[in-house]
Each structure stands twice: as C-alpha cells, then as structure tokens.
TrEMBL record:
Task performed by this protein: Involved in the oxidation of myo-inositol (MI) and D-chiro-inositol (DCI) to 2-keto-myo-inositol (2KMI or 2-inosose) and 1-keto-D-chiro-inositol (1KDCI), respectively.
HAMAP family cross-referenced by the UniProt entry: IolG
Quaternary organization: Homotetramer.
Domain Gfo/Idh/MocA-like oxidoreductase N-terminal: 2-119
InterPro entries (alphabetical): Gfo-Idh-MocA_inositol_DH (IPR050424), Gfo/Idh/MocA-like_OxRdtase_C (IPR004104), Gfo/Idh/MocA-like_OxRdtase_N (IPR000683), MI/DCI_dehydrogenase (IPR023794), NAD(P)-bd_dom_sf (IPR036291)
Designated name of the protein: Inositol 2-dehydrogenase/D-chiro-inositol 3-dehydrogenase
Biological or metabolic pathway of the protein: Polyol metabolism; myo-inositol degradation into acetyl-CoA; acetyl-CoA from myo-inositol: step 1/7
GO molecular function terms noted in the UniProt entry: inositol 2-dehydrogenase (NAD+) activity; nucleotide binding
Keyword Oxidoreductase: yes
Gene Ontology BP annotations: inositol catabolic process
Family statement: Belongs to the Gfo/Idh/MocA family.
Keywords: NAD, Oxidoreductase
Length: 336
C-alpha cells in the first residue's frame, strides 16, 4: 500500500483525494496539508477519520508514514515543496506546472539528478486519455507516414475576469504544449501567436481568441486555436496530418439525438468531466509504477520543456514575432 500525503486541499486537491481514496487501488491518503485550516479539514474529511492534518508542507513531507507526496498547490508554491520532497526521498506527483519559471524548473531538475532517483511525475493527464492514446498508436504504426501538421482547438465556455492574456498559455494551451510534444516525439523550436478579432465576451485584459503556432525540430507545424469564451462548450480537438493520411482524435461517445427536426450531440462543458477517465488512469498508473520504482509518465524534463515553450508563446503574444525555443542546458542523460 502506497501511503500518500496530499499538499493542497482546494477543489482539485480534494478531487484527487477522492480519486485516491475511492477509485485508486493500492493507495491510501494518510495525511493532508494546507495553509488554510478549513480547506485542510475538508480534505481530511474526504480521506477518512484516520487522516492526519498538517498546516505546513514540510511537516507532512517529513512524516515517516508518508511514502509519496501529491502537490496540488498553486504553481508559485511548487518549487519549495518539490525540493523538500526530493531531499526526503519521497515519490512525487506534481500537478502542472512544474514551476512558474524556467530557472526554478532547472533548480528542481538539478536536485532530482543529484538525488540519483527518478521521483517526480507531472500531472499532464491528456497522455492518458483514450482518444489521444489512439492517435499516438496510429502515428507509431507507421501506416500513415510521418506527421507534417497538427491542428488543435482548446475551447472553454467562459472564464472569469481574473483570467488574462498570458493565462491562455500558462493555464490553457499548456496541455497542448505537452501532449503534442509527446504525440509526435519532437521538440519545439519556435513559437508565434496570432491575435484575431476579439470576441464581445472578452474583457480589457484578455485577447480572446488566440491562434498559437509552434514548429518542431523536424519541421512539423502545429496550430492551436485557444478560445476561452466560446460559450458553446468545452471543445477539445486534435488532428495529425501525415504523409499518407490524417488522424483525427475521436470525440467522447455521446449519442446523436434527433428531435424537432434537428440532430444534436452533447459537448462537454467541463474539463473534469471530459477528462475524468484520464485523471483516474494517470493516478492509477503512478501508483502502479511505485511498485516497480519507476516514473512512467511525464518527467521533470517534460515539465521544463513545457515551461520554456510557454515562455516563448507569452513573449510572442506581445512581440508578434516568431520566438525561438531553446533549452538552457542539454537534456541530462538521467532523463534519456
């Protein structure tokens, strides 16, 4: 049994506690931590009566009963918890982003490499989605030739007035940044952002929609439409155009309903519904891999690549230019 401590008991934190407690085999939440006492109590209530409550992450990490740590705090707090957990030798699941700056990501990479143990998995759940997995397998088969282009959409019904232009990258497109890198097995080398006419549903601090363009080392061109006030649903699409065919990710399987001289199919309105099964699968895989003492999912290096790609897109939002993407260091052999 993997004894897990969860740091961060907000909405997503409690959702993961529920997942670990009710839908994951081989794991038990034995401790929670949150700086907000009320949130910590809510998290512990989901885990069960024997769950310990801590205010400070360091106390949870140093609890000898805790074998592994879930980090579900805001991104700015990730680095401190990650470094403490690495020092303690604890297995770690960290929700994206790895850190909020590329420099902090490199500091975490350095600590993990020096520890000599693969400890960190990033929470990029789309790699575990059935549709993306089917696309990945089709590409790997070689039947359709090499990938040439990738077309994506990431549409949300609406966002609040606290959501600004850079968040379209850091909070939204970050998912495509990782999953497309994984799908085509190629690193990004440049980024550009085009700004179409702004929707009437946006506000003064948000350019919406945006078209984000990425190019890989081997010349694959990726276009990602990010439209976070589309109003009609949470609409995620991906099509990989190859030399001998095009591979389009299937939509979730909802029935087509015909009524009143119209045909309609449901579109999800929430990411936690759309990717419910993917969230469950990534956590179960992380727990299963603990028995083998491996990290089978997105690594710390993947988190760093996502961070520098996101930084380039944010620069491109203001410059309008094609921005280069180049890691500050060579990929350590530790991650190869």
């Amino acid at each position: 049994m993997l004894n897990v401590g969860v740091i961060g008991c907000g909405g997503m934190g409690r959702d993961h506690i529920k997942r670990l407690t009710e839908r994951t085999q081989g794991a038990k939440v034995v401790a929670v931590a949150d700086m907000v006492d009320e949130l910590a109590k809510k998290g512990a209530a989901v885990a069960g009566v024997d769950c310990k409550i801590y205010k400070d992450a360091i106390d949870l990490i140093n609890d000898p009963e805790v074998n592994a740590v879930f980090i579900i705090t805001p991104g700015f707090a990730h680095k401190a918890a990650l470094l403490l957990a690495i020092k303690a030798g604890k297995r770690i699941f960290c929700e994206k982003p790895l850190c909020t700056t590329a420099e902090d990501c490199l500091e975490v990479i350095d600590a993990e490499v020096k520890s000599g143990k693969h400890l960190i998995q990033l929470g990029f759940m789309r790699r575990y989605d059935k549709g993306y997995l089917q696309v990945k397998e089709a590409i790997k088969s070689g039947h359709y030739g090499e990938p040439l282009m990738v077309h994506c959409t990431h549409r949300n019904p609406e966002v609040g007035t606290n959501y600004d232009t850079p968040m379209a990258v850091h909070d939204t497109a970050i998912h495509e940044i990782d999953v497309i890198h994984w799908l085509v097995g190629d690193d990004f080398v440049s980024a550009q952002v085009l700004m179409p006419r702004v929707t009437k549903y946006s506000h003064s601090k948000l350019q919406d929609p945006q078209i984000m363009l990425l190019r890989t080392k081997n010349g694959i061109c990726v276009d990602n439409e990010v439209f976070v006030n589309c109003k009609f649903g949470y609409d995620i699409n991906c099509e990989v155009v190859c030399e001998d065919g095009a591979i389009k990710m299937p939509n979730p399987a909802y029935p087509s309903i015909r009524k009143n001289a119209a045909a309609a199919t449901t579109i999800d309105t929430d990411c936690f519904v759309r990717f419910h099964d993917a969230y469950d699968a990534e956590v179960q895989s992380w727990v299963n891999d603990a028995e083998k003492n491996i990290i089978g999912g997105p690594t710390t290096w993947d988190g760093y690549l996502a961070a520098i790609t996101a930084d380039a897109l944010v620069r491109a939002q203001t410059s309008g230019a094609i921005e280069k993407i180049k890691p500050a260091i060579e990929k350590p052999g530790f991650y190869k």
